[in-house]
Input
Amino acid sequence: MTLLAISFCTFLATLAGGLFAMREGGRRHLILGLSAGAVIGVAFFDLIPESLELAGHAYDAGQITQITAAGFLLYMMLDRAVPRQQGRGGFAAASLVAHSFLDGFSIGLAFKVSVAVGLIVAVAVIVHDMFDGINTVSVVLANKGGDRAAWRWLVLDAVAPIAGAASTVALRIENGTLGLCLAIFGGFFLYIGASELMPASARGAAPLATAGMTVLGAALLYLAVALTRL
Output
C-alpha cells in the first residue's frame, strides 16, 4: 500500500512539472536552461554515482565511465539517424520515460531492503520527477513538437514510475546489471542536456540568464540527491 501511494506521488510530481513547463511558454528559454541543468545534474549526481555503487563490485570505475561514454555516443548516433522535428523530440522523451520507469523500479527495490531506505529513495525520486516532467515537455517542444505531443509524452512519463515500481513485485535483477543500465542512461542524459536542451535555451534573448538557470537546475538536483544521502 505504501509503495502504491508513493508511486502515485511520483505521478503527480511529474504532471506538475510538465504542466508548469507548458504554461510558462513565454519563459520557455529559461525553462529549457533549467531543464538542461536538471538533466545534466541527474547524470552527474544521481545516475553515474548510483551505477558506480551498484556495479562497483564487478566493474571498476574506468569501465563504468566507459559504458557511460558508450551511452553518450550511442545516443548521438541514434539521434542523428532520426529525422529532425518531432521525431527527435519523441526519441529524447522516450529516453526520459525509460528513465522514469527505472526511477519507479529503484523505489520498489529500495523498499525490499527496508521501509526506511525505500522512503529515502522515494523522496529523491519524487523531487526530481518534477524535473522529469519539465524535461519531457521541454525536449518535445525544443524539437518542434506541439503541445498535444508534449502532453502525450508527459502522461507516459508520469505513468512510467508506477509501472516500474509494480514490476519489482515479481521481477528480479542483479545490482550489477542495473548499475550498467544506469551508466548507459547517464550517457544518454549528458547528450540530451548538452546537445539538445542547452543549445535550445541559448537561442533566447538572455543567454546569461539561461546559463544561470542551467547552473540552478544542476544545483537543485545536487541538493535533492545530497539531502537524501545524509
Observations:
- Residues 28-55 form the longest helix (28 residues).
